[in-house]
Structure formats: structure tokens, C-alpha cells
Fold each of these.
Amino acid sequence: MTTSTPPLLQLDALRVAIGEKTILQSISLDVAPGELVVLMGANGSGKSTLGLALAGHPAYHATNGTARFGGADLLAMEPQDRARAGLFLSFQAPPEIPGVKNNLFIRTAMNAVRAARGEDPQDAYDFLGSAKAAATTLGLPENMLNRPVNDGFSGGERKRNELLQLSLLRPRLAVLDEIDSGMDVDGVRAVVELVQRLRSEGTAFIVVSHYLQLIESLQPDTVLRLADGQIAERGDITLAQRIARTGFVQAPELAEA
Ligand code: ADP
Ligand code: MG
């Protein structure tokens, strides 16, 4: 008898609408623990829509199909319960939360997921130690922990702050939506190192990116191209390389010519 790891995420014919407008027609996708999937697609093809729908953004409605996470019905769960179950989304455009201190925000989130995993909470002192260490690794000045969440942060600093959350929350599945956009070369290197470390511990990833150098560094198991509300192509790194060479507009048969 063979034992295979059941998928962590199972999407079956998932349809997503914003208001009356269907954005994703039918998405079927399995992601196993530790698997890394790169999601590509032209601007407006629905990559962010998929991440936001999985995270439970209230404006994004699943109108058909199913989504299971760790065996549970993801669509029946509140956003905070999806996060507690180990789902993490880094936003393409991380919002500012004026008045909420970054360290309290991250510690509260971290202790909520720790409680869900049956782990003891971290007190302010211990948290600050691990948060400062993680911030240093990510090249984020320590004083950013004392500022309101993303308030006045540059684009690249916001993305590093998303990485800080990822590093401390240690999710089961992380959706990284254009994490590299606005980041300098050291930031991109920090992404690769953090993803490799978490992946070796079993975290699965869905990475949205247009940047071939990052995609190659991540050594994805699977590369997907989203078009017309569905997964138009599935492949390996050679799919990402072809897209980087010829773009999204050309038909594959022309691209090969
Ligand atoms: P991508 O991340 O692939 O660039 P998005 O998921 O952001 O694409 O957007 C997919 C489509 O959904 C786009 O055509 C976009 O204009 C549309 N869209 C996104 N948000 C809304 C919204 N709040 N209301 C209506 N349409 C939206
Ligand atoms: Mg997007």
C-alpha cells in the first residue's frame, strides 16, 4: 500500500465573483504541503482575486465549486479562522493601519495562530526578541516595529513587513502576491531565503510574480498561467521562461516558432 500526502489546498471548479461580475470562472488546483506553485497571468487576469478569495475578503464571493484547506471547507470559514488554520496572504498593496502599532498587531496575530496550534502565547518580551531578530534578517529597521502598521512605510518596506509577518506566523500555506514588486535586490534575496526555509519546514506556497529571476530562484514545482478566468496552462519552469520571452498575448504555438 502506498501512502501519499493528501493535498493541503484543494480547489475544484472554484468560481469567484465581485458583486455581479464573475472574475474567476473555474479554478481547479491541488497544492501539497511544501509544494511551491507559481501563478502567472496578464494584468487583470485574476491572480489577486484568487488570493483574496482564499483569504476570505468579503467582497469576493465564491459562487460555484469548492475549496478545501487541510480537509475543512474553507469557504465556510471566517477570514480569521482561515488565518488560524494556517492560511497567509501577503497583499499586493499592503494597507496602512494608522493607530495600530506594528509589534502589537503582529504579536496578536501570532498568538492567535499559536493558540490554534496548541502552543503557548509569547509575552511581549519574548516576542520582541524574535521579532527584532526576524526584522534584522529581513533588513527591516527595528524601529519599524514601534510604528503604526505600514504607516509611512515605503513600498519595499511594506513588502518586507509582510515577510516579517510570514516569518513569525509560520503558516501552512502562504500566498505571496507580487511580493517582489517595489523590492530592491537584497529584498528579493530575503524572499528567496525565507521561502526556502519555510518550505523545508513544510509550508506550501502560491507565488504570484512576473519576475523570472525570482521565479527561477524559487525552484517551483508547478507554474500556472491564468487566462479567461481559468488555468489556461500548467507546466514547469520552462513555462515561466517562455512567458518571460514571448509575453502573455502570443499564442503558445506562435511562441514556439
Ligand atoms: P491581477 O491580480 O491578475 O492583475 P485582479 O485579480 O486584481 O487581477 O483583477 C481581476 C479583474 O477583476 C480585473 O479586471 C479587475 O479590474 C477586476 N476587479 C478587481 N477588483 C474589482 C472590484 N472591486 N470591482 C470590480 N472589478 C474588480
Ligand atoms: Mg494582482
Amino acid sequence: MNSDYIKRDTDVESILVSQEELSDIVSRIAAEVSSDYEDKNLLLLCILKGSIVFMGDLMKKLTIPCEIDCMKVSSYGKGTESGGRINILLDLHRSDLSEKDILIVEDIIDSGKTLSYLVNYLKINGARSVKAVALLDKPSRREVEYTPDYVGREIPDEFVIGYGLDYAEQYRSLPYVGILKRSVYEK
Ligand code: PRP
């Protein structure tokens, strides 16, 4: 193991969701989605970048056909606090949305602004149906009323990293979800 990897691990206060638990969560959600979308035309929509790892694992465990696509939006300003404004940085450019049942794939829901905005945006743009899955849910941080259709696990209001989630673009490749040491971002 190289020293950079060891350094990244030492920035983790504790493991919040282990690799084994993540695998169980993704299997459960994949089974639910496979059943619910059996007779539909599923388009999995990965919201970059944090959802990449979850999306990859989820799609491999589905037992039904699907298409995939990506959007990128920004909601967080800098560091650990949610910014609040939603900007579309990479849009969907498709002419077949009226035939698609979209499942938005998110790594985390915090204020709820990103998901509530995206669901509305995709409906306005003509998608046949729009639902969302959030791997992690911080209900205590909600600022708008929105509940994802599928949730992996509720978590407390801690700064979490790994399994796609970052701090300053680092730690996304950690295979588990960990709590970042305060000393890393309170410098
Ligand atoms: C995170 C996360 C969601 C959003 C949730 O993305 O992936 O998209 O914030 O926050 P909200 O519920 O308060 O709207 P981020 O902007 O950090 O981008 P990233 O996925 O590229 O890291």
C-alpha cells in the first residue's frame, strides 16, 4: 500500500458504512428497483461526480435492462456547507425522455434542494416518470420538503467521505463511507 493511501485512511475518524453494509444496501435497492421497473423503460441517471461508485455497483446488480446517462449539477459552495444554488453544469441531451422512466441516482441527500430541483426539471422536460434513489440521507439537514423514493441509509449530520463522496475532491476512491476528521477541514 502506498503512503498516500495510508495518509488518506488516517484522515478518517471512523467508518460509518462498511464495504459489507454498502454491498447489502445496494443489493436491497437493486432488488427493489428491478421489481418496480420490470415493466418500465428504466433510465438510470447518475448525478456526477459523487454518485459514480454507487451507480456502478447498483447497475451491476439490476436484473432488468436499463439505459444510463449522466448529469452534473452543483449545489455545495465550498468545503463542508451546502451552498443552496443549483447550477446545471452538464445537461441531458436526449429526445426520447417521454419514453423513459428516470431513476435519479444520488450518493447523498442533504438540504434536498438538488433532488427536488432535478425531479421537477426532468418532469418539465417531459420524462415519462421520475423517481430518485439516495444512498445516504441526512434528514436532519433538510431545507426543502422532499423524500427520495429509495433510501440506502439515514446518517447523522457528520461530514462523510468515501464511496464517491469527497472533501476538496479527495477521498472519493475509499471503498467505505467514513467520517472525516474535523482537523482536516478546520484548519
Ligand atoms: C452533493 C451530492 C448531491 C448534493 C446533495 O453533490 O452529490 O448532488 O450535494 O446536497 P443537497 O441535498 O443539499 O442539494 P456535490 O455538489 O457535493 O457534488 P459532487 O457530487 O460532484 O461531489
